[in-house]
What does this fold into?
Amino acid sequence: MLKTIQKEVWAFDCEWVPDTRSGILLLDLPPATPPRRVMEAMWAYGGATAEDPTPFLKTVLCRIVSIAAVRRRTVNGETKLDLLWLPRKPEAAEDRDEASILAKFLGAVGKGKPQLVGFNSRSADLKILVQRAVVNGLSLPDFCHRPDKPWEGCDYFARDNDWHVDMMEILSSWSGKGSVALNEIARLCGIPGKFGTTGDDVAGLWLEGKSREIVQYNCFDALTTYLVWLRLAHCAGLFSAAQYEAEQQAVRDLIFELAAQPGTEFLERYLEEWERLGELRTGGAGGGEQ
It folds into this structure.
């Protein structure tokens, strides 16, 4: 279970798609092969079947297309929240560059040393960030630095500290059938999970040039990850009931503020879904005693 809450916490989530350049290199495809054909070849390489035409590929074969995070900071005793995302301008080709996205995010993490919180992040999100940083030839000494002794500083690669919290590891059993999905734990808690878009849609959105829709979906997942973390921290006794309610209200206030601004109006849909699930949960839909 959780042990500590650092002064700065980033609850993050990444989105990725099959990397066509990697597919061309690995499968010796002609350089001019259309992106959709490359992806189809990569899925075939990954074991595609009629029942599962787009199987999950090894993360090293995929490219990061979006990263989003809820940042919680304690400043002079007050909690401040921000919603961060990359690319900031999804329509701009230079902002969509994978190396740029990775360098900005991991560079900021290395400099600020926040406590990272994710869901399946040890096996997936953090792993692909490191793999793709290596593929892109990035140098990230601040992020990759490891102290000589576990108690001497931040270490995102050790399992015996709380600098990187993978909530799936905390909530799931060792059995694959006992694993908990973010959508499951979130919705059962009255927190928005997947609605409108799922991870399976991301590759199609990317091929259609809908980068902004991917970023919006990514922001939803980051908010959900943060809200589940709040609930887990409350369960661990790190927030009292009153503090937990105040923390949730801070998220609502952040979303209200952003939803009123040009370019982030899409967040209103998250609030609506949050309210809908809350009403279902407290209203006892199908929830009579059995």
Remarks:
- Strands lie at 8-18, 62-75, 78-86, 115-118, 164-166.
